Amino acid sequence: MDKKKDVDDIEPGPAPSRPVDRFGFIKTEQSNSPEGILKSRPTHERGREERRIRKWRKMIGTGGSDWKHYVRRNPHVVKRRIRKGIPDCLRGLVWQLISGSRDLLLMNPGVYETLVIYETSTSELEIIRDISRTFPSHIFFQQRHGPGQRSLYNVLKAYSVYDRDVGYVQGMGFIAGLLLLYMSEEDAFWLIVALLKGAVHAPMEGLYQ
């Protein structure tokens, strides 16, 4: 649930005729293949990235079990490492820990499923209209009514019901789409809630009101 989705794990339907980068976006220049990029990285850079990942794993613990303890004891170390950049393979989990969305999910079991299955939104037609405009060059969202577009619709619809004062705004699709590349639907939903309602940091919902 917390692992970033690898390109190989995504089911986009028919294989794209053009190559994609390591994040799943279709490339415009075939000369910059993922293999070429990987080979072009100096060995010392790859080694440095592996050391950073080990430090982050030790800091957050299994499934984030050590995160709060480490933040309380070493807040300056956490801030410095975040500013240097969170390793790509750990971003989904770390974003949830930083935002407080993991706690929201644990405190609200079954809420997301109820919003998706049993509630209706006045914004459903708008969401459907905008789905194909969200990351159209990414293989996860390219297939019409495919798994990516369905997940994106579910998250946006659920939030529009959860927070009827804000509802749905077109720009939300790109935030939700990015999160879905790193985590499950339910995790992405609660992360959006944490960001907009301000579970830990200042709320962002004013951007959409």
UniProtKB/TrEMBL annotation:
Gene3D superfamilies: putative rabgap domain of human tbc1 domain family member 14 like domains (1.10.8.270), Ypt/Rab-GAP domain of gyp1p, domain 1 (1.10.10.750). SMART domains: TBC. The keyword Ribonucleoprotein does not apply. Residues 85-209 form the Rab-GAP TBC domain. It comes from the Eukaryota. It comes from Aegilops tauschii subsp. strangulata. InterPro entries: Rab-GAP-TBC_dom (IPR000195), Rab-GAP_TBC_sf (IPR035969), Rab_GAP_TBC_domain (IPR050302). The keyword Kinase does not apply. The chain crosses the membrane at residues 166-183. GO terms for molecular function: GTPase activator activity; small GTPase binding. Keywords: GTPase activation, Membrane, Transmembrane, Transmembrane helix. This is Rab-GAP TBC domain-containing protein. Residues 1-50 are annotated as: Disordered. The lineage of its organism: Eukaryota, Viridiplantae, Streptophyta, Embryophyta, Tracheophyta.
